[in-house]
Amino acid sequence: MTSGREKAYAYLKDTVLTDPEMQGTFLSEQELADRIGVSRTPVREALLQLSAEDLVELVPKRGARVSPLTGREIRELMELRGIVERYAAQQLVSGGAAPVVAGLRSLLERQRELTGADQAREFIAVDHCFHSALVSAVGNALLDRHYDGLRSRQVRAGVVALFNQQGRQEAVLEEHEAILDALAAGDAQAACAAIDHHLESTLKVLLAG
Protein backbone atom coordinates (compact mmCIF):
# COMPACT_ATOMS: atom_id res chain seq x y z
CA MET A 1 0.00 0.00 0.00
CA THR A 2 1.35 3.43 -0.96
CA SER A 3 2.09 5.71 2.00
CA GLY A 4 1.09 9.36 2.20
CA ARG A 5 4.72 10.42 1.81
CA GLU A 6 5.12 8.25 -1.28
CA LYS A 7 1.93 9.69 -2.80
CA ALA A 8 3.08 13.23 -2.11
CA TYR A 9 6.57 12.56 -3.44
CA ALA A 10 5.27 11.00 -6.66
CA TYR A 11 2.78 13.84 -7.23
CA LEU A 12 5.38 16.53 -6.62
CA LYS A 13 8.02 14.90 -8.79
CA ASP A 14 5.77 13.86 -11.69
CA THR A 15 3.29 16.75 -11.78
CA VAL A 16 4.58 19.84 -9.98
CA LEU A 17 8.31 19.68 -10.72
CA THR A 18 7.79 18.86 -14.39
CA ASP A 19 5.74 22.04 -14.91
CA PRO A 20 7.97 24.83 -16.32
CA GLU A 21 5.58 27.46 -14.94
CA MET A 22 6.38 26.29 -11.41
CA GLN A 23 10.09 27.13 -11.71
CA GLY A 24 11.11 29.55 -8.96
CA THR A 25 7.71 29.51 -7.25
CA PHE A 26 6.99 28.76 -3.59
CA LEU A 27 4.75 25.80 -2.78
CA SER A 28 1.89 25.79 -0.30
CA GLU A 29 2.01 22.66 1.86
CA GLN A 30 -1.68 22.94 2.70
CA GLU A 31 -2.75 23.44 -0.91
CA LEU A 32 -0.67 20.45 -1.98
CA ALA A 33 -2.03 18.33 0.88
CA ASP A 34 -5.61 19.16 -0.14
CA ARG A 35 -4.88 18.40 -3.77
CA ILE A 36 -3.18 15.07 -3.05
CA GLY A 37 -5.59 14.01 -0.31
CA VAL A 38 -3.09 13.67 2.54
CA SER A 39 -2.13 15.68 5.62
CA ARG A 40 0.64 18.30 5.61
CA THR A 41 3.13 15.97 7.31
CA PRO A 42 3.62 13.62 4.31
CA VAL A 43 3.94 16.67 2.03
CA ARG A 44 6.63 18.12 4.30
CA GLU A 45 8.46 14.78 4.34
CA ALA A 46 8.31 14.58 0.54
CA LEU A 47 9.65 18.12 0.23
CA LEU A 48 12.57 17.24 2.53
CA GLN A 49 13.38 14.29 0.28
CA LEU A 50 13.19 16.45 -2.84
CA SER A 51 15.40 19.04 -1.17
CA ALA A 52 18.01 16.35 -0.61
CA GLU A 53 17.85 15.67 -4.36
CA ASP A 54 18.32 19.41 -5.11
CA LEU A 55 14.93 19.59 -6.81
CA VAL A 56 13.41 22.05 -4.33
CA GLU A 57 15.00 24.67 -2.11
CA LEU A 58 13.88 25.03 1.51
CA VAL A 59 13.94 28.74 2.42
CA PRO A 60 13.66 29.61 6.13
CA LYS A 61 10.32 31.25 7.04
CA ARG A 62 9.14 31.04 3.42
CA GLY A 63 8.87 27.34 2.66
CA ALA A 64 9.78 25.21 -0.33
CA ARG A 65 10.69 26.79 -3.64
CA VAL A 66 10.94 24.89 -6.93
CA SER A 67 14.58 25.18 -7.95
CA PRO A 68 14.90 26.69 -11.45
CA LEU A 69 17.05 24.84 -13.96
CA THR A 70 20.30 26.76 -14.34
CA GLY A 71 22.39 26.86 -17.49
CA ARG A 72 25.04 24.74 -15.80
CA GLU A 73 22.47 22.16 -14.68
CA ILE A 74 21.03 21.96 -18.20
CA ARG A 75 24.50 21.39 -19.67
CA GLU A 76 25.29 18.71 -17.10
CA LEU A 77 21.92 17.05 -17.69
CA MET A 78 22.53 16.79 -21.42
CA GLU A 79 26.10 15.61 -20.89
CA LEU A 80 24.97 12.85 -18.54
CA ARG A 81 22.15 11.83 -20.86
CA GLY A 82 24.59 11.62 -23.74
CA ILE A 83 26.92 9.31 -21.82
CA VAL A 84 24.09 6.96 -20.84
CA GLU A 85 22.22 6.98 -24.16
CA ARG A 86 25.31 6.48 -26.32
CA TYR A 87 26.29 3.52 -24.14
CA ALA A 88 22.78 2.09 -24.50
CA ALA A 89 22.87 2.47 -28.29
CA GLN A 90 26.24 0.73 -28.51
CA GLN A 91 25.08 -2.14 -26.33
CA LEU A 92 21.87 -2.59 -28.31
CA VAL A 93 23.60 -2.61 -31.68
CA SER A 94 26.13 -5.18 -30.50
CA GLY A 95 23.35 -7.38 -29.13
CA GLY A 96 20.80 -6.92 -31.92
CA ALA A 97 18.47 -3.93 -31.71
CA ALA A 98 15.56 -5.15 -33.86
CA PRO A 99 13.10 -5.90 -30.99
CA VAL A 100 13.88 -2.57 -29.36
CA VAL A 101 13.44 -0.62 -32.60
CA ALA A 102 9.86 -1.89 -32.94
CA GLY A 103 8.95 -0.56 -29.49
CA LEU A 104 10.67 2.76 -30.11
CA ARG A 105 8.91 3.07 -33.46
CA SER A 106 5.57 2.67 -31.70
CA LEU A 107 6.45 5.43 -29.25
CA LEU A 108 7.52 7.70 -32.10
CA GLU A 109 4.16 7.18 -33.80
CA ARG A 110 2.43 8.17 -30.55
CA GLN A 111 4.50 11.34 -30.51
CA ARG A 112 3.45 12.19 -34.05
CA GLU A 113 -0.14 12.38 -32.82
CA LEU A 114 0.72 14.91 -30.10
CA THR A 115 1.93 17.96 -32.00
CA GLY A 116 -0.72 20.41 -30.79
CA ALA A 117 0.35 23.33 -28.59
CA ASP A 118 -1.88 22.05 -25.79
CA GLN A 119 -0.26 18.61 -25.93
CA ALA A 120 3.30 19.68 -25.09
CA ARG A 121 3.38 18.01 -21.67
CA GLU A 122 2.10 14.72 -23.08
CA PHE A 123 4.48 14.97 -26.05
CA ILE A 124 7.44 15.31 -23.68
CA ALA A 125 6.13 12.51 -21.44
CA VAL A 126 6.23 10.18 -24.46
CA ASP A 127 9.61 11.67 -25.38
CA HIS A 128 10.94 10.56 -22.00
CA CYS A 129 9.43 7.10 -22.56
CA PHE A 130 11.29 6.92 -25.88
CA HIS A 131 14.68 7.63 -24.33
CA SER A 132 13.94 5.59 -21.21
CA ALA A 133 12.98 2.57 -23.35
CA LEU A 134 16.30 2.87 -25.17
CA VAL A 135 18.19 2.78 -21.87
CA SER A 136 15.98 0.10 -20.26
CA ALA A 137 16.57 -2.27 -23.19
CA VAL A 138 20.17 -2.69 -21.98
CA GLY A 139 18.82 -4.66 -19.02
CA ASN A 140 20.89 -2.92 -16.33
CA ALA A 141 18.61 -2.19 -13.35
CA LEU A 142 21.08 0.19 -11.68
CA LEU A 143 21.41 2.17 -14.90
CA ASP A 144 17.61 2.31 -15.19
CA ARG A 145 17.23 3.76 -11.69
CA HIS A 146 20.01 6.26 -12.31
CA TYR A 147 18.45 7.43 -15.58
CA ASP A 148 14.94 7.56 -14.10
CA GLY A 149 16.27 9.92 -11.46
CA LEU A 150 16.72 12.49 -14.22
CA ARG A 151 13.06 12.34 -15.23
CA SER A 152 11.66 15.47 -13.60
CA ARG A 153 14.51 17.61 -14.93
CA GLN A 154 14.25 16.03 -18.39
CA VAL A 155 10.52 16.60 -18.69
CA ARG A 156 10.71 20.17 -17.41
CA ALA A 157 13.58 20.99 -19.78
CA GLY A 158 11.78 19.33 -22.67
CA VAL A 159 8.59 21.33 -22.21
CA VAL A 160 10.59 24.56 -21.92
CA ALA A 161 12.40 23.72 -25.17
CA LEU A 162 9.12 23.21 -27.01
CA PHE A 163 7.86 26.64 -25.94
CA ASN A 164 11.19 28.34 -26.62
CA GLN A 165 11.33 27.45 -30.31
CA GLN A 166 8.52 27.23 -32.84
CA GLY A 167 8.68 23.97 -34.77
CA ARG A 168 10.71 22.19 -32.09
CA GLN A 169 8.20 19.30 -31.96
CA GLU A 170 8.72 18.53 -35.64
CA ALA A 171 12.50 18.72 -35.18
CA VAL A 172 12.34 16.28 -32.26
CA LEU A 173 10.40 13.80 -34.39
CA GLU A 174 13.03 14.02 -37.14
CA GLU A 175 15.85 13.59 -34.62
CA HIS A 176 14.17 10.55 -33.09
CA GLU A 177 13.69 9.11 -36.57
CA ALA A 178 17.42 9.48 -37.23
CA ILE A 179 18.25 7.60 -34.02
CA LEU A 180 15.84 4.83 -34.98
CA ASP A 181 17.17 4.54 -38.53
CA ALA A 182 20.72 4.14 -37.23
CA LEU A 183 19.70 1.50 -34.69
CA ALA A 184 17.70 -0.39 -37.30
CA ALA A 185 20.73 -0.34 -39.62
CA GLY A 186 22.95 -1.67 -36.84
CA ASP A 187 25.19 1.39 -37.10
CA ALA A 188 26.35 2.27 -33.58
CA GLN A 189 28.46 5.21 -34.72
CA ALA A 190 25.55 6.79 -36.58
CA ALA A 191 23.23 6.14 -33.63
CA CYS A 192 25.62 7.90 -31.26
CA ALA A 193 25.99 10.81 -33.69
CA ALA A 194 22.19 11.10 -33.95
CA ILE A 195 21.85 11.07 -30.15
CA ASP A 196 24.52 13.79 -29.87
CA HIS A 197 22.78 15.93 -32.48
CA HIS A 198 19.43 15.53 -30.71
CA LEU A 199 20.82 16.50 -27.30
CA GLU A 200 22.94 19.36 -28.67
CA SER A 201 19.91 20.78 -30.50
CA THR A 202 17.85 20.66 -27.31
CA LEU A 203 20.66 22.27 -25.33
CA LYS A 204 20.97 25.15 -27.81
CA VAL A 205 17.23 25.82 -27.65
CA LEU A 206 17.22 25.79 -23.85
CA LEU A 207 20.21 28.08 -23.47
CA ALA A 208 18.89 30.47 -26.10
CA GLY A 209 15.54 30.75 -24.32
Describe the overall structure.
The structure is a single chain. By secondary structure, this protein is mostly helical. It has ten helices and three strands, in the order H-E-H-H-E-E-H-H-H-H-H-H-H. Strands 1-3-2 form a three-stranded antiparallel sheet. Strand 2 and strand 3 (63-66) form a beta hairpin. Helix 2 crosses helix 3 and helix 8 (151-164) packs across helix 10 (188-208). The longest helix is centred in the middle third of the chain and has 25 residues, at 71-95. The protein is globular, with a radius of gyration of 18 Å. The model has no long low-confidence stretch (mean pLDDT 90).
List the helices and strands and how they pair.
Layout: H1 4-16, E1 26-27, H2 29-36, H3 40-52, E2 56-59, E3 63-66, H4 71-95, H5 98-112, H6 120-136, H7 141-148, H8 151-164, H9 168-184, H10 188-208
Antiparallel strand pairs: 1-3, 2-3
In short:
By secondary structure, this protein is mainly alpha-helical. The protein has helices at 4-16, 29-36, 40-52, 71-95, 98-112, 120-136, 141-148, 151-164, 168-184, 188-208; strands at 26-27, 56-59, 63-66.
